[in-house]
């Protein structure tokens, strides 16, 4: 994959650091490929230990759900940061994943999610998971997140997301 152009995707580092702060994402090796104020693109590499059905080598649905929830959360972080120049904790209120087909074995899964609406109390996202083509999704997601304000972001979390040195 080509390096990301920061002029086109200025929030990739922020989203990547957010993903890397989550232990489950480190375990799953989820990577942020690009991010802007409009979207986030994450990649989940295929790993045999993530298989839910050994006879078919199909990834467990919970792994796809984790990918899509994380991409949605990262999209919210990026949208708020771009619009309001602040970081904010936003727990998932509602998450719906519609599975359309099983992921193909031995291939990575991508999640493309956008935060399409921000209110003072709720953020809304929608997106898809796919493999070879964004036009051939394996699942879609719709989420809402509660906005609880920037004052609850710890200094350590803020520094980690902004890539600042720890004191």
TrEMBL record:
The keyword Hydrolase applies. InterPro entries: HotDog_dom_sf, PAAI_dom, Thioestr_dom. It comes from Ferrimonas sediminicola. GO terms for cellular component: cytosol. NCBIfam families: unchar_dom_1. This is PaaI family thioesterase. Residues 58-134 form the Thioesterase domain. The lineage of its organism: Bacteria, Pseudomonadati, Pseudomonadota, Gammaproteobacteria, Alteromonadales. PANTHER family: 1,4-DIHYDROXY-2-NAPHTHOYL-COA THIOESTERASE 1, BLR7284 PROTEIN. SUPFAM superfamilies: Thioesterase/thiol ester dehydrase-isomerase.
